[in-house]
Amino acid sequence: MDSLLAKFAIGQVVKHRIFPFRGVIFDVDPTFSNSEEWWLAIPEDMRPRKDQPFYHLLAENGESTYVAYVSEQNLLADETGEPVGHPQTALIFESFDHGAYRMRPRVSH
Predict the structure, then answer these.
(1) What is the pLDDT of residue 63?
(2) 65-71 vs 54-60, strand pairing mode
(3) How far apart are CA 1 and CA 21, in angstroms?
(4) What domains, with CATH codes, occur in the chain?
(5) pLDDT digit string (tens) for 3-53?
(6) What distance in Å separates the CA atoms of residue 3 and residue 88, rounded to the nearest whole number?
(7) Which of 14, 39, 42, 53 has the fewest CB atoms within 10 Å distance of its CB?
(8) Which residues lie across from 23 on neighbouring strands?
(9) Do residues 84 and 22 touch, judged by C-beta distance below 8 A?
């Protein structure tokens, strides 16, 4: 597997393979870029490999919305076609169409 090629795209809605949450991808790290403390806090039998893309999600579950950091091996495409209810989606994305979000244009100087 080429660890530099991300399987999922920014703006794509995904769901966790094990836990009951879904979200929209707003950033991708080609390999693990979080703290060692964060990684070690994951139970060893569930700890993902570091040599794969990791995704930053605006996530939601039945109780709340939050930002999640998830390994590619733990994500699946969300097939519902439904938008994500995270309140920050409107800050990052300008529209939702055909099951995916489109990024807002970035202003640069």
Answers:
(1) 95
(2) antiparallel
(3) 26
(4) 13-103 (2.30.30)
(5) 457 899 999 999 999 999 999 999 999 999 999 999 999 999 999 999 999
(6) 29
(7) 42
(8) 14, 59
(9) yes
